Structures are given as structure tokens and as C-alpha cells.
Amino acid sequence: MAEVLSQSEIDALLSAIHSGEMDMEATLDEGPELKIKPYDFRTAGRFSKEQIRTLTLIYENFARLFTTYLSGTLRAICQVDILGVEELKFQEFVNALPDPVILAILSQQPFDGPALLEISPDVAYALINRLLGGGGNGSSGHAEGSRNFTEIEIVLLERIVRQFIRLFGEAWEKVIAVDVSLERIETSAQFAQIVALGETVAVITLNVQIGEAEGLVNICLPYLALEPVAKQLNTKLLFQIDTERRVLTPMGNDIRQRIAHTRLPVTAEFNTTPASVRDILTLQEGDVIQLDHKVGEALVVKIGHLAKFHAAMGVRDRKYAVMISGVIREEELDRE
Q1: Short-list 30, 57, 313, CA closest to 171
Q2: Number of domains composing the chain
Q3: What is the pLDDT of residue 236?
Q4: Residue 331, domain extent
Q5: pTM of this structure
């Protein structure tokens, strides 16, 4: 706040001006210099503040879902936070990309055009490290961080990207139903030009922490792709839909519905049979392996990795089948 002058100081200042002891024009010239910033009309913002706020809320939800997914899949302490949503020219985004980099080109219906998912090398190496049984510390050396990704590493990353991009649909569902699929993965920006270099894009920056490794993941959404649904990027509409959904669908029913449609692997297993490496190496076509399992003995049916049922083996419609004959109680597992 500016300093307040006393009455005596004001009188002294006025008398100095009237007597000519103080030059008023010189005093004005010594005032603070105006800072003029040139404005380029070509860079006028196309995303409104309301749309930026809506995108921030959507991808805050995605960050929470992504945190849960990474923690469960990698069996590590993971944290994903949104750092911000920024409006850029696509050329500025491309020029800031590291080399090499993982770029996933995503098809998002009903958006009018693809989106771009950029995974920094630090996050990519941490994912690969953890998937292959490492500690998930990623790459700490410059040599590792600057080398190109191998075909095996790209296949591993493609697999995990195909799994977690389904979370985009859940993050967007409060605004619009979005069907996301992976078109391809590139390691060079010149092969991932989804729009003209001068087009406006929204870049959502996420900070991803996997164990001790930390890096960035950027989501590039072109304005042209979002234009068909631009009117729905409104926080009032977002909260209105969320409130209506909470009233119409109780949380308990929603959880039960999700659990009911969750897919689990079901396997029927014989008793295990030990064999030496020499025996396995000498196996040939026509050899018979004697199982440690009696003909009339029940098979064990597992749900995931847990043994849940006893079953008898049979045939149905010319296919092998099992018929549930009993339930394995927890006390039976404790005795074993």
C-alpha cells in the first residue's frame, strides 16, 4: 500500500510546487515505466477458462483412477497428480518432447480426431523395470535415458497402455460417453503429427511417481477434436449430471453392478506331477506323462489364484467340461 502523507507534508509539497522549487513535469517523467507487451492475434486463446476448468476436473478424476491402476498392477507405491492444463500450439508441444519418447496415438469417439499420450522416458523405464520384476526405480543414468527403446520394451509398454486407456472413458463418463482405443505407438514426434503445427491444443500434464522413480505424462487434446463437444465442457453441467446420478443410483448399487461385471479367470487343475529337467528335455511326440491324479479323483477349480470348488471332469458338446461337485471351505485350506 502507498505511503499516506500527513497534512504538513502535503502543505510543504504544494508550496514547493507554487514557488517553482519542484519541477512537476520532471516528477511525472520519473514515474514508473509502463511495461508494454506485444499481442499476437494469431495466438488468441480458443479454450475458454470454463473449458480449462472442466478439463482439469476430468483429468483429476483420471489421475485418481490411474493411481489405483498403477498401484494394483505394479504392486508398488504409486502416485499420479495433475500439474495443470495449458493451452499451446501443437508445434510448441512437439518441440518440447524429449528424444526418445513414447507417443501413443489414441482414437477417441465421438471426438473429431485423435489425441496424443506422451510418456516420458523416466516413467517408461520405471514401468518396464517393474513389469520385468525390478524395483521400479527406472533409469537414473544418462546412457540408459538416451538410448532407443527395444521392440520388446515397446510391446510391453503397448500392452500396459492398452489396459489403462480404458480409464479415460471412466474419467469422461460424467460429461460424455467416450470410447478410447490405441491406434499405434511411435517413438519419434515426426511420425505422430495428429494436427497441423499451428493448431491449438490443450496439454494436460501429470506427474507420475512409481516407487522412487518420477516423471511426466502429457495428454495432448487438439481443439479441433474437442470442438463437437465443446458446449458440454461446462462445470455446471458436470456437477448437475453428477448430482442427478448420485440421486438416481445409490453408491451401493453402483458398486454391486461393477463387481457383477468384473471378469475373473477360472481354471480346473489336476494334481501336480514332478519331473526332472532331463525328462522334459527328452520328451517326444507320442510319449505319455503319468499324472499324480487318480481317474475318479475330483479336480480343483480355482477362481484367480484361490481354490474354491471340487469338480468332476466330463464332456459337453464335444468339449471338455467340469461339473462342480463341492465347495472348498476356508477351514479346509487352513488344514492344508
Answers
A1: 57
A2: 2
A3: 67
A4: 266-283+291-335
A5: 0.59
